[in-house]
Write a structure and sequence with these properties.
Radius of gyration: 17 Å
Distance between the termini: 45 Å
Number of strands: 12
Structural class: alpha+beta
Number of domains: 2
CATH topology of the largest domain: BirA Bifunctional Protein, domain 2
Order of helices and strands: EHEEHHEEEEHHEEEEEH
CATH class of the largest domain: Alpha Beta
Strand content: 25-35%
Helix content: 25-40%
Length: about 260
């Protein structure tokens, strides 16, 4: 059963090592669907691809514990897209702006610079539980050599995690219901409305090679579709670059320690 916004069991802490680790620990003890944990500071935050997420302070550090129903268990790969749309809506307060874009599959960018990201951790096949971590720079962005990051305060005046977190939870409830009722096609349409326009130039990297092409949307399973000189290719993993490619490549190399 999907938790209503008012029935989320919302907990807030001044500091935690990791909100996602806290949710995973609680899942192991049998915690039910609908737990949400917010921390005003994290000391061991985790990002995607094994990276450490730098917390500059006054940030969003929110994780949720979900218990998928039968419909959701059939689409474990779709959680990143459901969560990304909810994340976007919560940050943007329900509006869609050309300045804010979802980068495949689930980063949120402001003016081409990373503002926030998701970490989805699924336990079991089919999933027994799902933990989704939402991290965003709100008032300021961390200073990381070679990277140019963004914060929400550059876009909207209200950047209080106590306000933004409940908005994300409300939208996550909404989009879970949409997925259950209408399937992934409805989520895909919403995701595409918040991402790059079709035909935008992209580069996909596996860390060694770089595939240049035009963004052509999402496949049935959420894979990225890239038109490479008239040939459509599908990518299920990879680092995505757009805008100033040389700058984005440099940022990625610095983030990975190269």
């Amino acid at each position: 059963m999907i938790s209503e916004p008012s029935s989320w069991r919302f907990e807030c802490y001044d500091e935690l090592p990791s909100t996602s680790d806290a949710c995973i620990e609680r899942a192991g003890k049998g915690e039910a669907d609908g737990l949400a944990i917010l921390a005003l500071s994290q000391t061991r935050a985790r990002g995607s691809r094994g990276r450490i997420w730098a917390d500059p302070g006054d940030s969003l550090a929110l994780s949720v514990l979900l218990r998928p129903d039968d419909t959701e268990r059939a689409g474990n790969t779709f959680w990143a897209f459901i969560a990304a749309v909810a994340f976007y809506d919560g940050l943007a307060n329900g509006s869609i702006s050309h300045r804010l874009r979802i980068k495949w599959p689930n980063d949120v960018l402001l003016d081409g610079r990373k503002l926030g990201g998701l970490l989805v951790e699924v336990d079991g096949t089919p999933a027994e539980h799902v933990v989704i971590g939402f991290g965003a720079n709100l008032v300021c962005s961390p200073r990381i050599s070679g990277r140019h990051l963004a914060c929400l305060a550059e876009h909207v005046p209200i950047c209080d995690p106590h306000i933004i977190a409940p908005r994300i939870l409300e939208r996550l409830t909404h989009w879970r219901r949409i997925f259950q009722r209408d399937g992934f096609d409805a989520i895909k349409r919403a995701w595409l409305a918040r991402s790059l326009p079709i035909g935008s130039p992209l580069v996909v990297s596996d860390g060694k090679t770089y595939s240049h092409g035009l963004f052509m949307g999402l496949g049935e399973g959420g894979e990225l579709l890239l038109d490479r000189e008239g040939k459509r290719e599908r990518f299920v993993t990879g680092e995505i670059f757009y805008g100033d490619f040389s700058l984005r490549k440099m940022e990625a190399d610095c983030a990975s320690g190269h």
